[in-house]
Amino acid sequence: MSRLNILFLAVFVAVFVGVTLFQPDAVQRIQRGAMRVFSPFMRASTGLDSTFGEIGGDSLTPVELRARLDQVMRERDRLRLEVLQLDELMIENRDLRRALQYVDRSTLSLVPCRIISRKPANWYNTVVINKGARDGIQVDNPVVVPVGEQAALVGKISEVRADNTSVVLLLTDEICQVSAKLEGTREQGIVSGERGMLRGMPNLRLRYLSKEAEADPGTVVITSGTGELFPPNLLLGEVVEVETGAIDAEATIRPVVDFDELSDVFVILPRAMDATGPGTDTSPQDPDGADGAVQPAGAPGDRGEEP
Amino acid sequence: MIFYLFVFLAISLSFFVQEFVPYFEWAFFSRLLIVHTVFYCSAVSVQFPVMLLFAVYAGFIWDARYHVPVYTETTLSGPVQAELPFGLSILIFGLMGSFIQGVRPLFRRGRWEMPVFLVGLCTALGLILEYLLICFHRGGLEFPPELWWKLFMTALFSSLVSPFLLLLFSRLADRVGFKIRMDGITRRYQYDGDAF
How many structural domains are present in chain B? Predict the structure, then answer.
């Protein structure tokens, strides 16, 4: 090996060691800079993806389109009425609370976001969303999506990369661990994904259940709120089967969220932070057309921790 | 020099192209790692010191864009140890680039089978190295069948694209008069008449 090669090899090793010793703050600054450069391309990629995804998709006849439009308009009218009723109820509720000097216990506030990049990392189940520090999003904020009339957990914020970009670590990743319980029972455990599970809809594992745990297939699994990172009563999945071991039991869970079909999600912010942060509007914002509010499955103020 | 500039531009451009490369659900979310493929293809043609420089550049930008900061050790002052350290890609690119440099004589002679195979192999090896590090941090070695499929498909995508890139680099090297030098590895293969 020539001297020049040895010299370059030594420099290479020195640079590598130097870079790996970067502090997390420095890494974050570098990644923010990179995100500023790449985010327009990520958005363009998502735009292309959705455009091409629509081509050759559901092609409907004019009659079918008309029928669908009628159905949507009927639904819109129904929802308008519902909103009016809810507005009245909200005003009434506010007045009553004020009258009773009610202390607002609700700590949740939602920021609607759009997914701009899917599975960018090789070994981590992550997505990138279009909201960041500017909207008050912080690391570990829970991310949810409406499923029916309830909210289901998607994951948590693993990194806020820029003012308008954050990384969500999905529930299907092994490293995203959530305290959970079987609905209607006192059985609690930890839900996480499995390493190397690369299927579209990988099952989850509910570990550390008591040995006596009994759950029929289909039993709903929800967040327990014990860890205080995730609010209680968010949907996680349904039990597929329970395996009882020597000292504990483990359940296989089918997630309720279709992680491949995710496009719009909601980040839960603590209300106090939201009120002081830039996004002071407590009503959900519109993420480029995404609209709608979502509430956790339980009452918003019910944060009573299970034993 | 013009050739090196072209390689630098090709690696830079590949980062933007990578944003538009989809993953395939049927292939267990594998996708073409175009940055890796471009780098490994260029590593066959450039000299060792230049390859190392490109490894630092490509690895740094890759981690700046794709590194997921999952910290396994936290102290009172904050997180200290990332599961996959920032900068690991520099090492992976450097290691695999050095490995692939061994087939430069074949590439120079127009034999592309081995470089094409090695581009795929190095892509897969880089991925498995990352996976092994994750296993090391989390404990327990788990190798589900999907993992092998993901590695195989990613390697296959790289191998399928690499002939076009090798052709591109080869043509450009001819055009700009760049000679693929084989310092360090030529001597072993050189016929020495005095030996007889």
Answer: 1
- DSSP class per residue in A236-289: EEEEEEEEE-SS-EEEEEEESS-TTS--EEEEEEEHHHHHHSS----SPP-STT
> What is the Cα B71 distance to its own chain's centre?
25
Name, in order, each residue with C-beta under 8 angstroms of B51's C-beta and a sequence gap of 6 or more: B42, B43, B94, B97, B98, B101
Residues of A in contact with B126 (CB under 8 A): none
Closest chain A CA to residue B23 = A119
- Reply yes or no on whether the pLDDT at B170 is more than 70: yes
Residue in chain B nearest A174 by alpha carbon: B138
Contact flag A124-B52 (C-beta cutoff 8 Å): no
Domain boundaries, position B50: 2-70+78-177
- Looking at the complex, report in whole angstroms how far the Cα of residue B191 sits from the nearest Cα belonging to chain A: 20
Answer yes or no: are the C-beta atoms of B34 and B161 closer than 8 Å. Answer: yes
Neighbours of B170 (CB within 10 A): 19
Tokens of B67: 């590194």
Residue in B with minimal Cα distance to A201? B25
Please indicate, yes or no, if residue B183 is contained in any of the structural domains: no
Q: How confident is the model at residue A37 (pLDDT cuts 50, 70, 90)?
A: confident
**Nearest CA-CA distance, residue A278 and chain B, Å:** 25
B2 in Cβ contact with B178 (< 8 Å): yes
Q: Tens digit of pLDDT for each residue in B65-102?
A: 888 877 666 655 666 667 888 889 999 999 999 988 88
CATH code at position B130: 1.10.1760
